[in-house]
Specification:
By secondary structure, the chain is an alpha/beta fold. 26% of the residues lie in helices and 22% in strands.
Length: 287
C-alpha cells in the first residue's frame, strides 16, 4: 500500500505532496521512507496521516535516524510508544511529538513577512513543556498497564515544524532551555566598559498569562526521572539532511532512572551534565 491515498478529506500539505508534479521528489522520498517503515507502523498509520501528516512523517523520519545509528528497531503495534530501539540489551522507547502553535496568549504567533520580529522563545518553550508533560503522563499509563518496563529508557522526540516560527537556533536550542534553567545570553561588563564573561542567566520558570509559573528546570527535578532524554529537530520533507538523524539534538537527563550512554547515536548534537554539574555539548557530525 502506498503512503498517499486518494480522497479529498486531507490536510493541505498532504494534498500538495500527493498531487503536485513539482513536489514529485519529496513525494517519492516519503514513499521510500514509508516502504521502509511499514513493518513497524500500526494498522491505521496511513489513514491517520491524511489529517496528521507532519506527525506521521516525523515518526518515520525519527525511526530512520535511529536505524541509521545501527540500532535495531522493534514495533509496538499501537499499544505504546511509537517505536523501540535496542542498544546492547537496553530497550529505548521513543515517542514522537509535533507540537502545534497553540492558541491564545501562550500561542506561538505567525510570522509577518518582511518585518523584523523578536523570536517568541517563551511561547515556544511553553509549547514544548506542555508536550513533555503530556508524554510523561502517557508513559506512566503505559507502565501501569505493563506495556513498558521500569528498565526501559524513554525518549520524547520533538519536532517543531508545526510551530513555523521556531527557526534554527544560532545559540542555545529551545529544547535545552525547556529542561534546564537557562535564560537569556548575558555579558558582564567591567567598570571601564571592557567586556567580561558571557553566560546564560538563570531562569527556572516562565510565567503564563494566567499568572501560573511553569518550571524550566525539569531535568533537575526527580519527578521527571522517567524521561531518559529529549530529542529535538525542525526537519521536514522539504528541508532535510543527506542522512536522516544528522539534524538531531539530544539532551540527556542527569537524574534519569535509566540513563543513556553519551554518543549512543553518534551524530547530530548532544547535551549532558558533567560530574561537576556543568552543561556540556558535542557535535558528532564532524567527528
Amino acid at each position: 500500500m502506498n503512503f498517499f491515498q486518494s480522497g479529498v478529506d486531507v490536510e493541505d500539505v498532504y494534498a500538495a505532496l500527493r498531487d503536485r508534479e513539482d513536489l514529485r521528489a519529496e513525494r517519492e522520498y516519503i514513499e521510500r521512507l514509508w516502504g521502509w517503515y511499514d513493518p513497524l507502523a500500526d494498522s491505521h498509520f496511513t489513514s491517520d496521516a491524511r489529517k496528521h501528516f507532519y506527525e506521521r512523517f516525523w515518526e518515520m523520519y525519527c525511526a530512520k535516524g535511529f536505524s541509521n545509528a545501527s540500532l535495531q528497531l522493534r514495533a509496538i503495534n499501537g499499544k505504546g510508544p511509537d517505536f523501540c530501539a535496542e542498544l546492547s540489551g537496553l530497550r529505548i522507547c521513543v515517542e514522537a511529538n509535533v507540537p502545534g502553535p497553540g492558541a491564545g496568549a501562550e500561542g506561538v504567533p505567525n510570522i509577518t513577512p518582511g518585518v523584523a520580529q523578536e523570536s517568541p522563545e517563551k511561547e515556544i518553550i511553553l509549547r514544548l513543556r506542555n508536550g513533555l508533560e503530556e508524554k510523561l503522563k502517557q508513559w506512566k499509563k503505559w507502565k501501569e498497564s505493563g506495556t513498558v518496563s521500569k528498565d526501559d529508557a524513554y525518549i520524547v522526540a520533538f519536532n517543531s515544524r508545526r510551530m513555523h516560527i521556531a527557526a534554527p537556533n544560532w545559540a542555545m536550542p529551545y529544547i535545552v532551555k525547556t529542561v534546564f534553567p537557562l535564560g537569556g545570553l548575558t555579558t558582564a561588563w567591567g567598570t571601564n566598559e571592557t567586556e567580561g564573561a558571557t553566560f546564560y542567566a538563570k531562569r527556572s520558570s516562565l510565567k503564563k498569562a494566567s499568572g501560573n509559573e511553569v518550571g524550566t528546570d525539569v531535568f533537575l527535578n526527580e519527578e521527571y526521572a522517567e524521561i531518559s532524554a529529549v530529542l529535538y529537530s525542525r526537519v521536514d520533507c522539504f528541508n532535510r539532511p543527506e542522512i536522516e538523524g544528522q539534524d538531531f539534538t539530544v539532551v540527556h537527563n542527569p537524574l534519569a532512572a535509566v540513563k543513556l550512554p553519551k554518543g549512543f547515536l553518534g551524530f547530530g548534537k548532544e547535551y549532558w551534565v558533567s560530574d561537576e554539574g556543568e552543561l556540556c555539548d558535542r557535535g558528532w557530525n564532524n567527528g
